[in-house]
Structures are given as structure tokens and as C-alpha cells.
Description:
GO molecular function: RNA binding
CATH topology: Translation Initiation Factor IF3
Structural class: alpha+beta
Helix content: 25-40%
Largest sheet: 4 strands, mixed
Pfam family, one: CRS1_YhbY
InterPro entries: RNA-binding_CRM (IPR001890), RNA-binding_domain (IPR051925), RNA-binding_YhbY (IPR017924), YhbY-like_sf (IPR035920)
Distance between the termini: 14 Å
Keywords: RNA-binding
Number of helices: 3
Organism: Gracilibacillus thailandensis
CATH class: Alpha Beta
Order of helices and strands: HEHEHEE
CATH architecture: 2-Layer Sandwich
Strand order of the largest sheet: 1-2-4-3
Amino acid sequence: MKLTGRQKRFLRAEAHHLNAIFQVGKDGVNDNMIKQISEALEKRELIKVSVLQNCMEDKDDVAEAIAEGTGAYIVQIIGNTIVLYKESEENKKITLP
């Protein structure tokens, strides 16, 4: 399943007021971070991840690595912030249009 433009717009609006709860630094993305982000997505469904200035990897590569590792969708990459969405199996809060 891919997100439609309408669903992405809806999720961007929902994510607008959120603060980034994870930061990717010079070590890049690792297995522990993937596990923690996956758990956070299960609880919240929609999160922001901040890519710090000292990160050696490109933010697009970071977003791809996280999305691939967690099974989440990349809603948006704006500046150094990545917005991710993954439908929760137990804590479903967001209903997509």
C-alpha cells in the first residue's frame, strides 16, 4: 500500500504540532534506533525524527533506512525533519481519509 496525496496532506497536518522525539547524529541509523522507533510508531502511529547537522549520511538515506527497518511510510522530509507514519496494530488512533 502507498499513501495517496490526500492521506499525506492529512498526516502532514496532524504532524504539524508534533516535536521530534528521535535524533539521528554522527553514528547514523543503527539497529537499536530502528527498534526504538518501531516501538514509538506502534504507540503513536505518527512521529518526527530530527537529523542533526553532524550526521554523515544524507537525510533521504536516513529516512529510507528508518522506513525500511520499521515498515513505516515517509510522509514528508522537510528541512532536517522526517515525518513517519505506520498504522498501529493495537493502538489505532489515526483514521486515514
